[in-house]
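From the methods appendix. Each design record in this collection lists the tokenized structure first, followed by the designed amino acid sequence. Records were kept in a plain field format so they could be parsed without special tools. The example shown here is representative of the layout used throughout.

RECORD:
FOLD TOKENS (377 positions):
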């Protein structure tokens, strides 16, 4: 277990349980943070039972009784349900933190602990969060987000000022396991079924293909997502780097990154969407990206792979700077580990974690930091 001294004084003992996909938790008491990570994917029951044992043993051994328990916003995560149970056991206040907000605040935690002199968090800033899956406040699946955070009337306000274009997860979670479903969904938004059948004929029978087409048309058993991970999955499949069976977690994205060389020059297409009474929102058009890929499939695949990642990062930065060019930008989430995307972020002066895990294994620290500082920007 790691320990951090943090220059923030709060009277409460705070427990943050992290997400479900990567077992980690942290506890704050009297300016010290205890952080346990690498407890595995909690979807696996053995990992989850070990996670609970490690957590409860630590609380018991150190006679800690949490006053606040932070969890993810997703109502069905095992950690969210556990947080509710522990809140009742300890008579603690539950605090739900949206997934991508936690990713951004994990970068702020990193900034806080590595500064030799405590640095104040700016009154307002922009956060970019990119990953595979995170439950959004609109009940959709987020994953390519630009958030503006600022104090208004002594309260933290979070505006979702931009995101990747929503695409359909055809068949829900099956679209994560079978990247062809994600690609098919994207292409059906820009082409007629007969125009894309040849791409999928080696993976689906004509009957299966037609069933998927109907699912897409009717949005049956399909969820909208702005996920960066799913876009990279689809591109990896289209370019032939992965099969239609994900052999390990993040395989399509890993293979896309490994096979990347030098990007072509493709300017991002960012569409402004009027949100009426709310702030204007910018959408990074990923359908346009795939139209371009289809028109250029005869070109070097390594360069096409790099172009996909650069297009996304360039577009998100363009949107972030369009919102306010003077605000600092923080970049978190699993895709902050991507070499191409993180290099572009560095070149643009964007702040990332150096000491804290950039993906889900650092999320409990982000949840904690959100609670510690969301009213003290």
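DESIGN:
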């Amino acid at each position: 277990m790691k320990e951090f001294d943090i220059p923030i004084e709060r009277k409460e003992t705070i427990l943050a349980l992290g997400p479900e996909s990567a077992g980690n938790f942290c506890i704050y008491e009297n300016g010290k943070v205890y952080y346990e990570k690498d407890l595995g994917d909690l979807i696996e029951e053995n990992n989850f039972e070990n996670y609970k044992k490690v957590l409860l043993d630590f609380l018991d051994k150190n006679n800690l009784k949490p006053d606040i328990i932070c969890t993810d916003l997703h109502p069905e995560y095992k950690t969210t349900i556990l947080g509710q149970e522990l809140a009742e056991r300890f008579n603690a206040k539950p605090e739900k933190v949206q997934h991508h907000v936690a990713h951004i605040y994990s970068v702020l935690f990193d900034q806080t602990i590595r500064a030799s002199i405590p640095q104040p968090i700016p009154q307002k800033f922009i956060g970019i969060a990119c990953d595979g899956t995170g439950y959004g406040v609109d009940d959709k699946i987020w994953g390519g987000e630009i958030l503006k955070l600022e104090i208004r009337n002594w309260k933290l306000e979070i505006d979702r000022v931009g995101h990747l274009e929503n695409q359909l997860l055809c068949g829900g979670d099956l679209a994560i396991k079978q990247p062809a479903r994600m690609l098919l969904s994207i292409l059906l938004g820009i082409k007629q079924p007969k125009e894309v059948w040849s791409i999928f004929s080696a993976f689906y029978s004509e009957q299966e293909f037609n069933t998927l087409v109907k699912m897409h048309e009717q949005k049956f058993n399909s969820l909208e997502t702005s996920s960066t991970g799913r876009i990279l999955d689809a591109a990896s499949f289209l370019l032939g780097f992965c099969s239609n069976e994900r052999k390990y977690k993040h395989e399509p994205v890993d293979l896309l990154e490994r096979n990347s060389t030098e990007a072509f020059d493709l300017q991002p297409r960012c569409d402004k969407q009027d949100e009426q009474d709310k702030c204007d929102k910018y959408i990074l058009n990923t359908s346009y990206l795939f139209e371009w890929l289809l028109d250029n499939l005869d070109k070097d695949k390594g360069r096409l792979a790099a172009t996909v990642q650069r297009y996304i990062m360039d577009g998100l930065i363009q949107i972030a700077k369009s919102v306010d060019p003077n605000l600092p930008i923080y970049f978190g989430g699993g895709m902050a580990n991507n070499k191409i995307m993180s290099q572009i972020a560095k070149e643009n002066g964007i702040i990332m974690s150096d000491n804290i895990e950039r993906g889900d294994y650092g999320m409990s620290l982000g949840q904690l930091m959100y609670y510690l500082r969301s009213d003290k920007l």
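APPENDIX NOTE: Residues 301-323 form the longest helix (23 residues).
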